Amino acid sequence: MRNSLALVFCLMAAPALAHVTLTENSAAPGARFTAHFRVGHGCSGSPTIALTVTIPSGVSQVMPEAPPGWTIATVREGARVSAVTWKGGELAADKPGEFVAAMTLPAGSAQLVFPATQVCKAGQEEWNETPMAGMAMQHPAPVLLLAAAPASVQGLAIGDPWFRALPGNLPAGGYFTLRNSGAAKAMLTGAESPACGMVMMHKSENKGGMAGMDMVASVDVPAGGSVAFSPGGYHLMCMDPKPALKPGAKVPVTLSFQGGGKLMAEFAVRNAAGK
Length: 275
Hints:
Blueprint: H1 2-13, E1 20-22, E2 26-27, E3 32-39, E4 48-54, E5 60-64, E6 71-77, E7 80-91, E8 97-104, E9 110-113, E10 116-120, E11 124-127, E12 143-146, E13 156-164, E14 172-180, E15 186-192, E16 196-207, E17 210-215, E18 219-221, E19 226-229, E20 234-241, E21 250-257, E22 262-270
Parallel strand pairs: 2-12, 13-22
Antiparallel strand pairs: 1-3, 3-8, 4-7, 4-10, 5-8, 6-7, 9-12, 10-11, 13-14, 14-19, 14-20, 15-18, 15-21, 16-17, 16-20, 21-22
C-alpha cells in the first residue's frame, strides 16, 4: 500500500503531459485522410494561442479547418502547403483541443512525421523528436504510419490486462503482457479506449537517481517473444479517465499495430494498491 500511495503522490506532483499527437496512428498510402492534431493542454499552466504543424514531403492537397474563433495561415512551397498555423483563438491550459486538416497521403509504405510548435501565452513547446521503436522521448512529433495492407494480428495475444485507477481525475496506468508466437516481429503503435479521453504509451526510467517518464511512439514485439507493460517500465497512460474506469469494472482497450492490425482486450480495473 505504501508503494501505491507513493505512486499517487508522484503523479500528483508530476508536470502535466501536453503532447501534441495524431488521434489516428495509421492510414492507407495514397488515401484522402483527415488528420486530427490533438493538443493535450497548455504549457505549464499557460493557455495555447497557436499551433504550427509542418507538413512532410509527399503530402499534398492540404485543406485545414479553423475551429470557432481561430484563423488559419499557411506556408507554401510552390503549389504545395508545407506548414499550417492555427492562431487567433485561445485554448484553456487545462483543456484539450483538436486542429483538423484534410490531405492526400503519398503512395508507398512510410512513416510520416509532422513536427509541431505549440505557442502559449507564456512560452512554447517544440514537438519535433522523430519517433523510433522503443526510444523514450520528451518532445515526440505527431507521427502517421502508412502501410499497404492491414497487418495480421495472428500469433499476438494479450495477457493479464489491467488498469490502476487513482483518486480524482489522475491518469490511470495500464499494464499487460503482449506475446508474439508468430514468425515475424510486430510493432505496437498505439492504443485507445472509450474509458479514456486519450491513451498514450510511456516508459518509466531511472535518470540519475530520479524517477522519470517519457512517451514512446512504438514498441517492438520480437518474433517468438514478449513485451511486458508493467509498473516501472512500459505502460499505458489513460488520460482524462471516464466514470466507467472504476475499481471492479472491466473496460475495452484496442491495441494498434504497424500496418493497421488491431487487437482488443477487456482490462480489469483495480484500485491504487493494484487489488
